[in-house]
Amino acid sequence: MKHIIVAVVLMAVSSGAALAGGTHAGGHGDKVATMPIGSPGEAKQAKRTVNISMSEKDDGKMLFQPAVLKVKKGETVRLEFVNKGQVDHEFVMDVHDGIMEHKALMEKFPEMEHADPNSIRLAPGARGEIIWTFANAGEFGFACLIPGHYDSGMKGDITVAH
């Protein structure tokens, strides 16, 4: 419990500007703020489904397939995940700097759990989904931020076109 409190305090301090800007959705309360990458969407608005697998290879490489996503500004997409690997994996999408800040925090507090709407964590063999509306055009990223996974190749890019 002490580690969780310390993690929350460090996260708040290290991303104070992001919190003040309303970019942290965090699942705290009834209203979810829009992040630069967008916000949770409604299933009935999703016109397209993208299937994403999470896995690891015998050589130690970890990956998402596909590792590049292309969507349109304002588009609501159903992202369906399956963990085909032998270990837990997660998917977190954000601005690139946000991913790197979150990665550093996860390295300090590897047992930290989070329930942000822009992320999902799956056990081996598990399935899940995120329904997301991409609000702004630009270049974003996604990654597995469980310590060691990003450095083993588990990352990708999201292009949101106008």
Q: Radius of gyration from the CA trace?
A: 15 Å
- Proportion of beta-strand residues: 35-45%
β-strand number: 10
Mean pLDDT value: 85
Overall geometric form: globular
The total count of helices amounts to: 3
Distance between the termini: 44 Å
* Assembly state: single chain
**CATH fold-type name:** Immunoglobulin-like
- The sequence of SSEs as H and E is HHEEEEEEHEEEE
Low-confidence stretches: 1-31
The largest sheet has its strands arranged as 1-8-5-2-3
Descriptive overview:
There is one protein chain. The chain is of the alpha+beta class and 162 residues long. It has a single domain, classed as Cupredoxins -  blue copper proteins (Immunoglobulin-like, Sandwich), CATH 2.60.40. 19% of the residues lie in helices and 36% in strands. The chain is built from 3 helices and 10 strands; from the N terminus they run H-H-E-E-E-E-E-E-H-E-E-E-E. It has helices at 2-14, 16-20, 96-108, and strands at residues 39-40, 48-56, 62-65, 68-72, 76-83, 89-94, 119-122, 127-133, 138-143, 155-161. A 5-stranded mixed beta sheet has the order 1-8-5-2-3, with no helix packed on it. The chain has a 5-stranded mixed beta sheet with strand order 4-10-9-6-7, covered by helices on one side. A hairpin with a 5-residue loop joins strand 2 and strand 3 (62-65). The chain is globular, with a radius of gyration of 15 Å. The chain starts with a helix and ends with a strand. The model is unreliable at 1-31 (pLDDT under 50). Residues 1-20 form the signal peptide. Keywords: Copper, Metal-binding, Signal. GO terms for molecular function: copper ion binding; electron transfer activity. Residues 56-160 form the Blue (type 1) copper domain.
